[in-house]
Design brief:
Oligomer: heterodimer
Structural class of chain B: alpha+beta
Distance between the termini of chain A: 26 Å
Distance between the termini of chain B: 25 Å
Largest sheet of chain B: 6 strands, antiparallel
Strand order of the largest sheet of chain B: 2-3-1-6-5-4
Shape of chain B: elongated
Strand content of chain B: 5-15%
Strand order of the largest sheet of chain A: 6-7-8-3-9-10
Number of domains of chain B: 2
Radius of gyration of chain A: 17 Å
Shape of chain A: globular
Number of strands of chain B: 6
Number of helices of chain A: 7
């Protein structure tokens, strides 16, 4: 599903974020990417989204070399297959829960009848079926993160990328969010989650890829944080 | 259908959110396009005057009454023989002269109804090949300027007098040039500022909505899906300016030009059709403003 082959990424300012990294992730896997700040976790996710290009090496997502995609059609199509969740939720404050999720379908041109069935369905799935018409500032942090997961999953992506999704949440809420991500993973979505959260990694016992100074220092199935 | 609805909803939201900037852009576009239209109308008006005064010929040779057919043929061939000086010679008989006068004074029925047709003289209307060779004509018809009235009277039988329009033509076209170019110059400056303002409005709109744009890119919206609402916004602002400019030009026609109609009898004035004829040019200029502003304004967001 995801393949980084000997990838090096050096930014324009000379900082090398990743050095000769090779990672293979199969369809349906749940993978934690751990490591201290600046170890290259976010860069890895940005490479998968084709927000960055590798300086050396190749990146494949769903069988496609992301470097070969055109910005006119290929890159948008790639991103429709990847859902994204962030630490800061990135919700639009002037839109309701329903509108935040439907926006993601609307801007890729989905017809109204698809939006009207899928959006309530996915909000029900993440446990927010009762809060369709609330605004983000009326929700708790955990609920806001559920909205952002719903937005990431509403187009049924092959891959879900989560960048510190529990970074702003208390431990109990984090556990709820992890249960939800696990549920999303169980229906076949490949989940890649960058995190600092030791307790969560240890509790989940999933595959762990540890980065340090841009290099893979550990790749362990059913691993713990360190 | 759904896509169009999306674009227009996004565009309307953009203009609302960016109200003051959008207003500034629209009013600048309005003033610029109004001045542009005004320049075109001034040029059109002066052309009407030139046509009325000279019938678009440079020299007229009037024939004295009664006009004999043999005089017409003789003078015609005499004029046509002056190949170096004369480009074309057209004969206008008394009926044609009368018809042209009626059209010229059509806004003044007092003249068209009361002046009998036979007072208008028949004439040869001459376009010169080389204006400097004008003297050849007066020489061929043995004409002399009258030192007191400056009329050019001729001893050639059948010829009443010769009217030389070269001087007046030169002066009128000089006035046209100065007026039209002056207004066009201001119009161009205003069009440039309108373009910059519209571009800046688009850019500010994109900045204000950078969060939405970020999410759109993330979930796989195409470049055009993201940009089109802003391009439509620029187009709407330019077209609102164009509509206001066209309305104002019609108001100028009704409240300024129409008030003069009939007061100066010989002066032909622009009509609704003349204003209508320049509206496509205003719309083209507005589209130009929108296209250039769109290209500049969204350049920063060109890559996915």
């Amino acid at each position: 599903m995801i393949s980084l082959q000997n990838v090096t990424k050096t930014y324009k300012n000379g900082v090398t974020a990743l050095e000769a990294v090779s990672i293979e992730i199969e369809k349906g896997e749940f993978v934690f990417v751990v490591g201290p700040s600046g170890s290259g976790k976010s860069t890895t996710l940005r490479l998968l989204l084709r927000e960055e290009e590798p300086s050396i090496g190749e990146v494949f997502v769903a069988g496609k070399n992301v470097l070969r995609l055109s910005s006119l059609g290929g890159i948008p199509k790639l991103r429709r297959n990847i859902g994204c969740v962030f630490q800061d939720f990135k919700l639009l404050q002037d839109k309701t829960v329903f509108e935040n999720v439907s926006f993601a379908l609307e801007v890729i041109g989905k017809p109204k009848h698809v939006i009207d069935t899928r959006v309530p369905e996915i909000l029900d799935y993440v446990g927010l079926g009762e809060k369709l018409n609330n605004y983000p500032d009326e929700l708790s942090g955990g609920e806001q993160q559920r909205v952002s997961i719903a937005r990431a999953c509403v187009n049924r992506p092959l891959v879900l990328l989560a960048d510190e999704p529990t970074g702003n949440l208390d431990p109990n809420t984090s556990v709820d969010i992890m249960r939800l991500l696990d549920k999303v993973n169980k229906i076949g979505t490949t989940v890649v989650m960058a995190t600092h959260d030791q307790a969560i990694v240890d509790a989940m016992r999933k595959r762990v890829i540890e980065l340090d100074k841009g290099k893979v220092v550990r790749d362990q199935s059913r691993g713990v944080y360190s | 259908m759904r896509r169009i609805e999306f674009y227009f909803r996004e565009t309307a939201a953009g203009i609302r959110r960016n109200g003051i900037m959008a207003f500034a852009a629209m009013s600048t576009a309005f003033i610029a396009l109004f001045l542009f239209g005004l320049a075109l109308i001034i040029a059109r008006e002066i052309n009407l005057v030139i046509e009325a005064v000279t019938g678009n010929v440079q020299v007229a040779v009037y024939l004295s009454d009664p006009v004999r057919p043999e005089t017409v043929t003789r003078i015609q061939s005499e004029l046509q023989d002056l190949t170096g000086a004369v480009a074309s010679v057209q004969y206008e008989d008394k009926t044609e002269a009368c018809a042209r006068a009626k059209e010229l004074f059509s806004s003044n029925p007092a003249i068209t109804e009361n002046v009998p047709c036979d007072v208008y003289p028949a004439s040869f209307r001459v376009t010169l090949a080389d204006t400097a060779q004008y003297a050849q004509i007066t020489a061929a018809l043995s004409c002399e300027p009258d030192p007191t009235t400056h009329d050019i009277t001729c001893t050639e039988p059948g010829v009443l007098k010769v009217l030389d329009f070269r001087d007046i033509l030169d002066r009128l076209s000089a006035i046209t040039r100065v007026l039209r170019n002056g207004v066009l110059f201001i119009a161009v400056i205003m069009l440039v500022s309108a373009t910059v303002l519209v571009a800046n409005t688009l850019r500010m709109g994109m900045f204000a909505r950078r969060k939405e744009i970020g999410i759109m890119r993330l979930v796989g919206a195409t470049n055009w899906r993201i940009r089109v609402p802003f391009l439509i916004e620029g187009l709407v602002e330019a077209l609102v300016g164009a509509a206001l400019a066209i309305i104002t030009l019609f108001l100028v026609k009704v409240f300024v030009v129409d008030q003069l109609r009939g007061r100066i009898v010989w002066l032909p004035l622009i009509r609704n059709g003349d204003v209508l004829a320049i509206t496509p040019w205003i719309l083209i200029a507005a589209a130009g403003v929108a296209i250039v502003a769109g290209t500049i304004g969204i350049r920063r967001f060109l890559d996915v």
